[in-house]
Amino acid sequence: MDTLTTSRLILARKRRGLSLVKLAQATGISARSLSAYENGHQQPSLDNLRELSKTLGFPVSFFFASELDEIPIEAISFRALSKTPAFRRDAARSAGRIALLLNDWIDERFVLPSPDVPHLPKTDPETAAEMVRARWGLGQAPIANMIHLLEAHGVRVYSLSAECADVDAFSTYRGKDPLVLLDVSKSGERIRFDSAHELGHLVLHSEHREPHGPDAEQEANRFAAAFLMPRGDVLSHSLQGAMTDRIIAWKSRWRVSAMALAHRLHEVDLLTEWGYRSVCVNLSRMGYRSTEPDGISPETSQVLAKVFQAVRADGQSPAEIAKELHLHLPELNRHVFGLIPTAIEGGAAGSAGRRQGRLTLVT
Ligand SMILES: [Zn+2]
């Protein structure tokens, strides 16, 4: 039998948020043996391998494919870094690494838009947001779809599954390509805000090579608010002293949460401290703190939808892609906004007439 790829066993365990002890409990394999597998000092028996495959939710072939580098922790902008337990961060980071498998697969086959994200370290977030808007030709207009916009400027966007929920989102670089990973179990408005927040990190903080503290989080939030709700546009809509009902009525213009709009109105001095606080109390009472009643539907990736379309037109099914990546289809689907219609899987058209060379995707 081939030799197990230790980096893959470690990745799979971290992806599920398991310590060696927890994995030992779940599989009935001793922690000492598991540790020896991870060190490469011992090879698992076939039975133990099957048990690991089942418990960790990866095909046996996953554990024998090529070595994988981890995404370095310092390459990642995590929200609430200090509050997030290490195993949760590892789970999100490992989920990101699995998304990179697909990202690399796509890169070999498609030409995607080139990265066009300016680096503006030490710039005031409001100014930086205006500069990115100007560079991308957005004027003061509301943004129809944040994910499509990021993708059109060369940012690769993938989804994280619900088990990464307390990480929210993170961004990193793969070579020169910026990547954003989003927790998509939240409201459409919050996913949009997270997308703009991660853009803020890419613009403001990608020069730093260390995890970011609370200041960086605040800067990314200020960037996101200014990017989604440009000062000039917000000031031109007679929202001075707006009460809760007006905020709820107007939030759809910028496709933001009521809380985010209230905060922005306060930031641009259209709401006093007192006005802002009373709106927050009202919104909380009406259920707008953690959810968004009557919210927008979540945005998804345009690039990934086109990739799957093109691949299907070539006679390859998503199940075959998953197989090439040594993943189960549901695992792949968790990183692509659930865009794979799993119910109609199977029945691939065969490999006849596959395209040679890379296909250019226009977003
Ligand atoms: Zn952040």
Automatic annotation (TrEMBL):
SUPFAM superfamilies documented for this protein: lambda repressor-like DNA-binding domains
PROSITE patterns according to UniProt: HTH_CROC1 (PS50943)
InterPro entries xrefs: Cro/C1-type_HTH, IrrE_HExxH, Lambda_DNA-bd_dom_sf, Rad_response_metalloprotease
Pfam family, one: HTH_3
MF terms in GO: DNA binding
Location of the HTH cro/C1-type domain: 9-63
Family note: Belongs to the short-chain fatty acyl-CoA assimilation regulator (ScfR) family.
Protein name: Transcriptional regulator
